Amino acid sequence: MTICVLCNKDFQDIGRNPDPVSLFGECCKTCDETKVVPARVLEHHYKTKYGQITGRICITNLIHMGIKPQRTIELISKAEKIKNADLENERNYYGSFVCKS
Ligand SMILES: [Zn+2]
């Protein structure tokens, strides 16, 4: 007997990988078909649209934190701007020889 990480019910047959709905444990066949497969289809859609890494962040943010993909994209682009600002400051204070990219 194994307990499904998604519905908390015992199940007999082989456990399935619940990623991206759960990042740990095993899930039952029913949860795999009703929750995990649709989430993977959506993940595939996001990865196609936004790229592998950003698509992955979009699906995990949506499932685990309720953050919509559009908001995730905004947050990522803000993080890029901060990174660029840091780079600019580093160049100003330490000179371009310190920062190669
Ligand atoms: Zn289940």
Describe the structure.
The protein is mainly alpha-helical. It has one domain (2-94). It has three helices and two strands. The chain has helices spanning 29-50, 52-65, 69-94, and strands spanning 2-3, 10-11. A two-stranded antiparallel sheet has the order 1-2. A hairpin with a 6-residue loop joins strand 1 (2-3) and strand 2 (10-11). Helix 1 (29-50) packs across helix 2 and helix 2 crosses helix 3. The longest helix is centred in the last third of the chain and has 26 residues, at 69-94. The protein is elongated and about 65 Å long. The relative contact order is 0.09. The model has no long low-confidence stretch (mean pLDDT 91). Bound molecules: zinc ion. Zinc ion binds at residues 4, 6-7, 9, 27-28, 30-31.
Listing every helix as H and every strand as E from the N terminus to the C terminus, the arrangement reads EEHHH
Evaluate the radius of gyration: 20 Å
Structural class assignment? mainly alpha
Overall geometry: elongated
Q: What about the largest sheet?
A: 2 strands, antiparallel
Helix fraction by DSSP (H/I, runs of at least 4): 55-70%
The tally of beta strands, per DSSP, is: 2
Which cofactors or ions or other ligands sit in this model? zinc ion
Question: Uncertain segments of ≥5 residues (pLDDT<50)?
Answer: none
Number of helices: 3
Number of domains: 1
Strand order of the largest sheet: 1-2
- Terminal-residue CA separation: 53 Å
